[in-house]
């Protein structure tokens, strides 16, 4: 099957790249020194009580070494810390810091503004249909 500029695969991949590029540019414009992927990682850390590298890799569908690089960078910036597990000393939990929570809040404000702007002229009905289609696509991809 030939992929054209109007094919679903092309449009979907280009849209995802455009959204990531847009948020990366806006983070930079607002002096937020993290990538959209690092933002997503911080978001995950706030939604889970305990996070270890392998769990984060699974959630983000990335390899462990890619996640480790993100964690290393976030740790250098003071946004996360590694904490030893009380039972298994080989395990390190990744915990968001107060500074990380502050930068996450700023990122969320940026993302919310961008989302509002990007969702202009998209009805609630269109959005609901799109969400249902995405769910079906994900389910079908997992078969």
From TrEMBL:
Q: Which SUPFAM superfamilies match?
A: Winged helix' DNA-binding domain
Q: Which Pfam families match?
A: MarR (PF01047)
Outline the extent of the HTH marR-type domain.
Answer: 5-139
Q: Which residues form the signal peptide?
A: none
What InterPro entries does UniProt report for this protein, alphabetically?
HTH_MarR-typ (IPR000835), MarR/SlyA-like (IPR039422), Tscrpt_reg_MarR-type_CS (IPR023187), WH-like_DNA-bd_sf (IPR036388), WH_DNA-bd_sf (IPR036390)
> Any stretches that span the bilayer, and where are they?
none
Q: Does the keyword Glycoprotein apply?
A: no
Q: Which UniProt keywords apply?
A: DNA-binding, Transcription, Transcription regulation
Q: What is this protein called?
A: MarR family transcriptional regulator
What organism does the record attribute this protein to?
A: Arcicella lustrica
């Amino acid at each position: 099957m030939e992929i054209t500029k109007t094919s679903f695969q092309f449009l979907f991949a280009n849209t995802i790249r455009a959204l990531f590029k847009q948020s990366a540019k806006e983070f930079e414009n607002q002096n937020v020194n993290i990538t959209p992927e690092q933002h997503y990682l911080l978001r995950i850390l706030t939604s889970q009580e305990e996070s270890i590298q392998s769990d984060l890799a699974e959630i983000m569908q990335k390899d462990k070494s890619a996640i480790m690089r993100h964690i290393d960078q976030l740790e250098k910036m003071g946004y996360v810390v590694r904490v030893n597990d009380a039972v298994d000393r080989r395990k390190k939990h990744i915990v968001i810091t107060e500074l990380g929570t502050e930068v996450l809040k700023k990122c969320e404000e940026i993302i919310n503004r961008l989302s509002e702007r990007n969702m202009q002229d998209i009805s609630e009905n269109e959005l609901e249909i799109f969400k249902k289609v995405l769910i079906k696509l994900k389910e079908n991809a997992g078969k």
